[in-house]
């Protein structure tokens, strides 16, 4: 790749004061407009990786090594161990995040509109323009009747609609890197498909890079440019989805692929 | 959803209405003696419930007592709610050392004995109704702060708060727009506990002569007057006691129902 990677981790680690190392010696890149998937079982540190990149790892955890986000200044910006003052302006603008459960990630007692507004308002967009942008963002993720949707409360929407509205929220900030923490796990297969389509379109049209955590190999096959397999905080395998899914080499990846095949083999 | 207790709603609405309207609906006021009808039983001389030993209309004084008691309850609850919610929210959201320091302050204030505290206040500032608001409000916010803090500790870990942080929102905005709206239920519950407690406390302080001062009346003042002559005129004690019980009962049972709905 001629272009410098957007995010570049070099022997990145995360150690918790009490429970010990969470992530160990991670080195990988996320290129411009690339979709990288991380697969791994529960507790392998996937979610903590995403949160720690945003400077929001669990309390008591310290990052080590280097995680460099390119494009700000000449050398980019170092995320590992960065202070809150450095991180705050990056959140939302440079890096956005999509969570697993679209019900939990909305504040239950405020309307969708009032929560979506916060993003452009935070960026100093004029109020007339804000409304136009909200409608545009909701249309971008193919939600019907956006005017009405803005006045809805989260519980009035279906899971798929909530997740797509969440996607609209992430897109409103126009981050260059989207961190997605199992964005399709809580959704039914057809809705999963649509969310993945939207993610791919974001990459194609806006050149957004996506770092997606999942344990669903179907998602990996569908969307990933590259896969990393994470086990107990270490990368045990890396490659294209075709290579990893067809001929997995690490023991964990082999187990994972076998399990997925068996599930698909059901009548 | 459980229905609100109808009796309590009617009782509270009636007492509140009487308290609000009394200056306009009654031919008597609470301080002018009617020298022709002193110490009189119910019904004579246009006094529906009779008069006290100074010839003041009992019904009007009862209504004025409700007015003062409800006023104190509203003002003191508002004060304690404002301080308590702000304090608990900040301590719970900030966490860590801020939380520890703020909650230790609450613990220390908790251990200040209430009655001597009020006596010291009255000695320093004189006996005044405003002082009563401040004294009760200054003490009852402690419970609210503790409850709100506990609730905030849970809310702070919720995914939508993390999502708001990830979106780049600052702490004041998150506290104000994301946590505060979710505290509405628990705040309402706190309020239903605080209001009847404040009414009782006001009656207690006024009974001791630390609250409302004659000729201004309140349920506590009337109880004290009535207790002084309860052998001769038991009605003077029974009436304010009944109103106090009705008021506190109505508030409590209404609070109970609201608690089941929103708690």
Topology at a glance:
The complex is a heterodimer of chains A (267) and B (263).
Chain A: E1 7-16, E2 20-30, E3 35-39, H1 46-53, E4 61-69, E5 77-78, H2 84-87, E6 95-98, H3 112-122, H4 127-140, H5 146-150, H6 159-172, E7 177-181, H7 189-206, E8 209-214, H8 217-223, E9 226-231, E10 234-239, H9 241-246, H10 251-264
Parallel strand pairs in A: 3-8, 3-9, 6-7, 7-8
Antiparallel strand pairs in A: 1-2, 1-4, 4-5, 9-10
Helix pairs in contact in A: 3-4, 3-6, 4-6, 6-7
Chain B: H1 6-25, H2 58-94, H3 96-110, H4 114-125, H5 129-156, H6 159-166, H7 171-179, H8 184-207, H9 219-228, H10 235-262
Key words describing this protein structure:
heterodimer, A: 267 residues, Rossmann fold, six-stranded mixed beta sheet, four-stranded antiparallel beta sheet, globular, B: 263 residues, mainly alpha, MetI-like fold
Walk me through this protein's architecture:
The complex is a heterodimer of chains A (267) and B (263). Chain A is an alpha/beta fold and 267 residues long. Chain A contains ten helices and ten strands. Chain A has one domain (7-105, 175-264): Rossmann fold (3-Layer(aba) Sandwich). Chain A has a six-stranded mixed sheet with strand order 6-7-8-3-9-10, with helices on both faces. Chain A has a four-stranded antiparallel sheet with strand order 2-1-4-5, covered by helices on one side. The longest helix of chain A has 18 residues, at 189-206. By secondary structure, chain B is mostly helical. Chain B has a single domain (6-15, 49-262), classed as MetI-like fold (Orthogonal Bundle). In chain B, helix 3 (96-110) packs antiparallel against helix 5, helix 5 packs antiparallel against helix 8 and helix 9 (219-228) packs antiparallel against helix 10 (235-262). In chain B, 41% of the residues are buried. Chain A binds chain B through residues 51, 54, 56, 88-93, 95-97, 99, 101, 104-110, 118-119, 122, 166, 169, 173, and chain B through 158-160, 162-170, 173, 177-178, 181-182, 184.
């Amino acid at each position: 790749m001629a272009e410098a990677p957007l995010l570049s981790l070099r022997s990145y680690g995360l150690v918790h004061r009490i429970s010990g190392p969470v992530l160990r010696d991670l080195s990988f890149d996320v290129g411009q407009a690339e979709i990288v998937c991380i697969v791994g079982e529960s507790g392998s540190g996937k979610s903590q990786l995403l949160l720690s990149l945003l400077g929001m790892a669990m309390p008591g955890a310290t990052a080590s090594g280097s995680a460099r986000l390119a494009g700000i200044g000449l050398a980019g910006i170092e995320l590992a161990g960065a202070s809150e003052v450095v991180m705050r302006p990056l959140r939302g603008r440079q890096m956005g995040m999509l969570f697993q459960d679209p019900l939990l990630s909305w504040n239950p007692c405020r309307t969708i509109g009032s929560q979506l507004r916060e993003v452009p308002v935070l960026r100093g967009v004029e109020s007339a323009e804000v409304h136009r942008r909200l409608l545009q963002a909701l249309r971008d993720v193919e939600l019907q009747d956006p005017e009405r949707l803005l006045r809805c409360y989260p519980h009035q929407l279906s899971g798929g609609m909530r997740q797509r509205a969440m996607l609209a929220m992430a897109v409103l900030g126009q981050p260059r890197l989207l961190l997605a923490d199992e964005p399709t796990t809580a959704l039914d297969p057809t809705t999963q498909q649509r969310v993945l389509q939207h993610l791919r379109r974001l990459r194609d049209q806006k050149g957004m890079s996506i770092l997606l955590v999942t344990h669903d190999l179907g998602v990996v096959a569908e969307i990933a440019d590259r896969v990393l397999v994470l086990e107990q905080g270490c990368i045990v395998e890396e490659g294209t989805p075709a290579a990893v899914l067809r001929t997995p080499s690490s023991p964990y990846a082999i187990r994972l692929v076998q399990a997925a095949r068996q599930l698909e083999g059901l009548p | 959803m459980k229905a609100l207790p109808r009796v309590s709603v009617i009782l509270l609405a009636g007492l509140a209405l009487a308290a609000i309207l009394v200056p306009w609906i009654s031919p008597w006021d609470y301080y002018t003696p009617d020298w022709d009808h002193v110490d009189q039983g119910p019904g004579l001389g246009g006094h529906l419930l009779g008069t006290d030993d100074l010839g003041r209309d009992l019904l009007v004084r009862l209504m004025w007592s409700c007015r003062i008691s409800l006023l104190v309850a509203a003002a003191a609850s508002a004060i304690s709610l404002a301080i308590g919610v702000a304090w608990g929210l900040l301590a719970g959201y900030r966490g860590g050392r801020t939380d520890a320091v703020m909650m230790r302050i609450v613990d220390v204030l908790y251990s200040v004995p209430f009655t001597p505290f009020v006596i010291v206040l009255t000695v320093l500032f004189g006996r005044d109704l405003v002082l009563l608001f401040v004294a009760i409000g200054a003490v009852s916010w402690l419970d609210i702060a503790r409850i709100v803090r506990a609730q905030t500790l849970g809310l702070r870990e919720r995914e939508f708060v993390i999502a708001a942080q990830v979106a780049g929102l600052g702490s004041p905005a998150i506290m104000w727009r994301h946590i505060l709206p979710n505290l509405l239920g628990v705040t309402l519950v706190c309020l239903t506990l605080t209001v009847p407690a404040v009414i009782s406390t006001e009656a207690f302080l006024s009974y001791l002569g630390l609250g409302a001062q004659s000729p201004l009346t309140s349920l506590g003042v009337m109880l004290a007057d009535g207790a002084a002559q309860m052998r001769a005129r038991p009605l003077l004690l029974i009436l304010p006691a009944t109103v106090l019980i009705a008021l506190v009962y109505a508030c409590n049972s209404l609070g109970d129902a609201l608690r089941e709905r929103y708690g």
